[in-house]
Design brief:
The complex is a heterodimer of chains A (about 220) and B (about 260). Chain A has about 220 residues and is mainly alpha-helical. Chain A contains eight helices and no strands. The radius of gyration of chain A is 21 Å and the shape is flat. In chain B, about 40% of the residues lie in helices and about 25% in strands. Classes of the chains: A mainly alpha (about 220), B alpha/beta (about 260). Chains A and B meet through α5 and α6 of A and α2, β6 and α3 of B. The site of magnesium ion has 4 residues of chain B, from α1.
């Protein structure tokens, strides 16, 4: 039985991991773009992004997921998500990407604005280009500032993947719950918890490592 | 001919006029001290010279080349502004060293980036970088910081940080080096070491503009002193005239605060 549960949980973990990785891969650059948008000189763009961020951060991720998964089918008459598990995972990644990009954009903006203007000016008077200033002067200082809040968000993302169960994607929590439904077993639920704890534990070690690496300057 | 000619510079922020018809000249190898009370526009003037602010009016010329002319307000590309900036060096009140780089890296960064843009960089990479590092070490030695080249800014005292910043500003051999209150952020016991290196730069005939509240220092080191008030140059001339025998009432009032202690 233990082997059976482990196998099912592993396959749930694979789905969870896919959602996690793809969401990060897409939401990190999108978040950076949004952050640049919120500090751009173009006022309409700034306002638009602010409204979007307000809506996304102001409503439950679960609600956004349901709308993104079921909405297109009801509005267009046909489901844009390919049927089966793959479609559910794709829809989840899309909803999560939009949601997390908004949260990340706020953190990124804080990181960019947190680097004192004097740093950019010091680069300017030394004749550096804008991109040299960004990559050689501000970027690392920005990363150092955002690592703690980002690690919080990313750990939250691990646990938010469980929301994919709402649209019946067979991720880790779905897998653990299935044994309770079918056989009335509760111990697989605790076993599932251990999977999350290990996942988050590894991430925590990774973030501690990065923080240590950036500890050499202030 | 003067190395720097500043004519009729004006600048305002929203509703406040910060600079009004500021004109002065600077001879090559001489030091100019700018004094004046808080808010008189000293920092803004230095920032205009370094293209960190754009004046509303006036012209700036170095070695006879007009670098800035408010009447010819064509949008300039980044490359042009960059080359113009290199005529000036800037030392900030708050040092603004790059925290993630060592003292030596701070000094050499700009030079390394410029070298990378040269077409022959790839072939002679090693030799070029060695030369740049040697130059950086030489500058740090000149600042009395040879032992500190591997230190990060947070491992240095304020006075040491400011001396690294001076070395960094000297690295690209600017025609004119600007100091914005270089010792104002320092504890009194650390100002001496920074003033000493500025003094030695003056002895080596570095062309400098120094905004300062250190009156004794301005009198000793500067060849010319400007007193500013409310965005205007109220009085300018030899240090002995402006500081010891001011003609204007406003200058006298300002200086009285310093002599009374
Ligand atoms: N970016 C800005 N926007 C609006 N007003 C500004 C800006 N920068 C400076 N000012 C104003 O311009 C005036 C002159 O400022 P500036 O910093 O040049 O004075 P200062 O002579 O350097 O003073 P201090 O001795 O305190 O450094 C001040 O009244 C200041 O409030
Ligand atoms: Mg100032």
């Amino acid at each position: 039985m233990l082997l059976n549960v482990t196998r099912t949980l592993m396959s749930g973990l694979a789905t969870t991991f896919q959602i996690f990785i793809f969401t990060l891969v897409f939401s990190l650059p999108l978040g950076l773009l949004l952050a640049f948008g919120t500090i751009s000189r173009c006022r309409p763009l700034r306002c638009l992004i602010q409204v979007v961020v307000w809506i996304i951060r102001g409503t439950p991720l679960m609600l956004q997921l349901i709308i993104i998964f079921y909405g297109p089918g009801l509005w267009l008459g046909h489901n844009i998500w390919s049927g089966g598990e793959a479609g559910r995972i794709t829809a989840t990644v899309v909803a999560f990407t939009i949601n997390y990009a908004c949260y990340f954009s706020v953190i990124f903006r804080g990181g960019i604005e947190g680097v004192p203007a004097g740093q950019r000016e010091a680069g300017q008077v030394l004749g550096m280009t804008k991109s040299q200033i960004f990559f050689k002067v501000t970027l690392l200082q920005m990363i150092k500032r955002i690592v703690p809040p980002m690690s919080n968000e990313i750990i939250t993302l691990v646990k938010d993947t469980a929301l994919a169960r709402t649209i019946a994607a067979q991720e880790l929590t779905f897998a653990g719950y299935s044994f309770m439904k079918s056989a009335g077993l509760t111990w697989p639920l605790f076993y599932t918890g251990i999977f999350y704890l290990v996942f988050v534990g590894i991430l925590t070690l990774l973030f501690n490592f990065i923080e240590k690496k950036l500890d050499y300057f202030r | 001919m003067a190395i720097l000619e500043v004519k009729h510079i004006g600048k305002h922020f929203e509703n406040t006029k910060v600079l009004e018809d500021v004109s002065f000249e600077l001879e090559e190898g001489s030091a100019l001290a700018i004094i004046g009370s808080s808010g008189s526009g000293k920092t803004t003037l230095l920032r205009c010279l370094n293209f960190l602010e754009t004046p509303d009016s006036g012209t700036i010329a170095v070695k006879g080349n007009t670098l800035f002319d408010a009447d010819r307000t064509k949008a300039e590309n980044e490359k042009d502004i960059r080359t113009k900036r290199l005529h000036f060096g800037m030392v900030f009140q708050s040092f603004n060293l790059f925290p993630q780089y060592t003292a030596l890296e701070n000094v050499t960064l700009a030079e390394r980036l410029l070298a990378k843009e040269r077409p022959d960089f790839k072939q002679n990479k090693k030799a070029v970088l060695e030369k740049i590092n040697a130059h950086g070490r030489e500058l740090l030695a000149q600042m009395g910081l040879s032992e500190r080249e591997g230190h990060y800014p947070h491992q240095l005292s304020g006075g040491q940080q400011q001396r690294v910043a001076i070395a960094r500003a000297l690295a690209l051999k600017p025609d004119i080096l600007c100091f914005d209150e270089p010792t104002s952020a320092l504890d009194p016991e650390l100002t001496g070491e920074v003033l000493k290196v500025i003094r030695s730069l003056a002895e080596r005939k570095t062309t400098m503009i120094i905004v300062t509240h250190e009156m004794a220092f301005a009198r000793d080191v500067a060849d010319q002193v400007i007193f500013m008030d409310g965005g205007l140059i109220v009085e300018q001339g030899a240090p002995d005239n402006v500081i010891n025998h001011p003609r204007e009432e406003r200058t006298r009032q300002f200086l009285a605060r310093y002599t009374q202690g």
